[in-house]
Design goal:
The protein has five helices and no strands. By secondary structure, the protein is mainly alpha-helical. It has one domain.
Length: 165
């Protein structure tokens, strides 16, 4: 049986190249045409919407409540849940920016370009910290839950993601 840590690490390994790509796009944005930048924004948004959103739903509905029960319902996962809202908001912002019409050439310092870079950097930083923090919870659950409980968690996570995909 795979561990919860293994499951989360595999999930995050699949997501991390795209998370790191957000910073790369932001770094390169000023030298790109608007069309090229818009294409990259749309591609990353499509991936993150299809892959990250189901992951967030699965862990928020299955993993976080288990951790909350373990921590005697002290609202320990509230910051993580709040992060999910911020991540979804930034994804929506990227989609809106990608839909915005304008000149075919990105001009350094244009408000649109600054908004794009700001959203990309914010999403990148938030995801890097959030995913690393998420991995810190797995060993706690693995230590304190019975093997059958962990197996049920893993089955539920897999099933939930399958229905979201």
């Amino acid at each position: 049986m795979a561990s919860l840590t293994d499951w989360l690490c595999a999930e995050h390994s699949r997501l991390m190249p795209h998370v790191d790509g957000l910073r790369v796009i932001a770094d390169e944005a000023a030298g790109m045409t608007r069309d090229a930048l818009t294409d990259r924004l749309r591609a990353e948004h499509a991936f993150l919407s299809a892959e990250l959103s189901p992951h967030m739903t699965a862990v928020q509905e299955i993993l976080y409540p288990s951790f909350e029960r373990l921590m005697q319902n002290r609202h320990s996962m509230t910051p993580m849940t709040r992060d999910h809202g911020r991540i979804r908001g930034l994804l929506e912002t990227l989609e809106q920016l990608a839909q915005a019409s304008g000149a075919p050439r990105v001009l350094a310092g244009s408000p649109w370009l600054l908004d794009v870079r700001r959203a990309l950097y914010q999403l990148y930083a938030l995801l890097k910290v959030h995913l690393a923090e998420e991995e810190m919870y797995a060993p706690i659950l693995e230590h304190d839950l019975a093997e059958t409980q962990l197996a049920a968690l893993l089955d539920a996570l897999d099933a939930r993601q399958a229905t979201e995909a």
